[in-house]
Amino acid sequence: MEHTQSVSENAAPLELIKTHCPYCALNCGLHLEVGADGIEGRSKWKESPLTEGALCSKGMTAHEQVHHEDRLLRPLVREGSDFTETTWDEALDRAADGFLRIARTNGAAANAVLSGGSLTNEKVYLVGKLARLGLRTPNVDYNGRFCMTAAGAAHSAAFGVDRMMTPLAELENAEVVVVIGANLSAAFPVALPKLLDGVRKRGGRVIVVDPRRSRFVKPDDLHLQLRPGSDTTLFNALLADVIHNGLIAGEFIRDRTNGFDLISRAMRMFDLEAAALDCDVPADDLREAARLIGSTRQTMYLHGRGPEQQVGGVDNVRAIINLGLACGHVGGPGRGINMLTGQRNGQGGREWGQRCNQLPAGRSIENDEHRAVVAERWGVTAADLPRTGLTYVEILEAAGRREINGLLAICTNMSVSAPDLNQVDAQMRALDHVVVIDPFFSRSARHADVILPGTTFAEESGTITTIEGRVVRIDQAVPPAPGRDDIEILRNLAERFGVAQHFEFETPEQVFTEMRAVSAGGPVDYAGMTYSRLRQSDGLFWPCPTIGHAGTPQLFTKRFATEDGRAHFAPVLETPPPEPISDHRPLVLTTGRELAQYLSGNQTMRIPAQNRIASRPVLEVHPDTATAARLVEDELVRITSSVGTSTVAWRANPDLRPDTLFLPYHWPECNRLVAAHLDPICKIPAFKYTAVAIQPAPAGTLGANELAGQDPASVHTNETIRT
Ligand code: SF4
Q1: pLDDT digits (tens, 9 = 90+) for 376-427
Q2: What is the pTM of this model?
Q3: Is residue 723 part of a domain?
Q4: Is residue 671 part of a domain?
Q5: Do 175 and 126 belong to one domain?
Q6: With a 6 A CB cut-off, is 24 part of the ligand 1 pocket?
Q7: Distance 48 CA to ligand 1 centre (A)
Q8: Both 174 and 307 in a single domain?
Q9: Which residue owns the Cα nearest ligand 1 atom 4?
């Protein structure tokens, strides 16, 4: 651990611990100020990579969670409808016994593990290993299934790996930036809006593809305010136009890609005018966008959850990739097709084996060569490794059918984050044995039989892989308040599952050392990274195969990571939504982030400053739509979908399409409305398209603030918790 010192107001020396904000994937660097009583505050880490000490309000208050009065400090076990404190040994015994009993009676696959994108790489690795070797279940997945899997599947198929290909600082060399379905103002408020300002100041252009106009969009930007669900059609139209106008990168296509001829033939049939009608975007705007994009090699694409969280999510991303490939926008300065990872360690979370189809270091669980390598490095046989299991939503659905009976949930809050929440509560109730590891009592913990208090970001060391694919270190600032950290909990469970020999780790660095060895030669190679190298540098980008290797900030300069070394085009067409808008439900609900809150709010909703900014869900409605629905200012609105009804506050937003509504997903009122429709390839839920109707809420209806259990902080005391 590296220590520097500062002086507090009363002149007592404070230790400054370098770490990174625990919320989004930018991982803004910060110093935690540690005094005799623990964390006393935070200060700027001005030399931190990319963000140089800047923080949004969430990052400024993140340290307040560490000593928060709501922290779970002692293990809890269910006694009827109450939770009672107990010893670690008793809680761990009950946790493990439940899973072992289920495995004996119903088979190993009747247990499942769901985890979160906030975990350090070390914990991700251990979660996957514990599921495969300890529980011997194929059913392990994480909440990145809700955000990054469409991007991941599309990039892996086209390029061979899924990682941001061009570092964000390269925006300084971009002439055109295309931002697709990403609200940079709310989701990435630090660094990205400023980098876009730099592009504009240099005379570059920003093109935004989004049904909603967010604050980062400026008057001179070209905003393609497309109809929700028409992303593939829009990008096909742009591709058809660049081909038609000879703006493609012929040499690049010939030397470095496969499959262009097929795409090119298909695009000849494409009618831009018809596409413009379908997308509800002026045809001239599409032509202007195609001209801007195709007239320079220095175009960067930043795609977020807008095109991805749909039933055609993978195809939407492939359509973006097709356009970028055709124009040669990869593999160099100022150009790249970049996914914007959302959660803190959403990138590392999809590298280290907590997905149902994946082994550590980006290896495939169905690839026999990959299985053999991991088995050999784990000291087991390949036959010991389960095959592909169920994804997140499929695990919950299997629980509802009583095909899965035991669930270990680690820092994931399905009772807010998963689609179709009315079903999720029923599915969770159907489980025989639920064990939750979390620093705070979450809505999902209401269903637990055993709750093991987890670790906050300041109480552990480890590594995180940022939005860019940069591996950075976090350092422990204070000891874990509950007395043991998450790695110890996982090891304690492994001991009880009879696989202690595979979990002989005392420190996160020891786990990382094993991970490096397991990753050597794999698709995601960390072998050359060490904790001290990570601290001495601005972090290291994978692949980094040897100690002397400088890391790889820019991917694909000479070859792609596919077997043939070439990038792959794939023809795609728009996938219609399973439940399109109709006379009965004529509006499209889209969901996303509120700047002040994070994911299910289990941390940020406990922090007063964040709640002062955003304390409840507010539906955004175009003023014309509000008038047509006879909504009344300062009164509530009722939203009805095919699976649920919610009553919330609303506000007019003229920057939305009139046929589109927006609701932040941090409160259960949102996902209660979203059906569990999944992309068939990657199984991401279609959070961005729900057909709904709105009407004024009947007088006397309870609003979101008054609904029981709304505030997670109100659910928990440290003594006994009544469900
Ligand atoms: Fe940075 Fe994201 Fe944390 Fe805000 S929430 S400080 S943008 S890492």
Answers
A1: 999 999 999 999 999 999 999 999 999 999 999 999 999 999 999 999 999 9
A2: 0.95
A3: no
A4: yes
A5: no
A6: yes
A7: 13
A8: yes
A9: 56
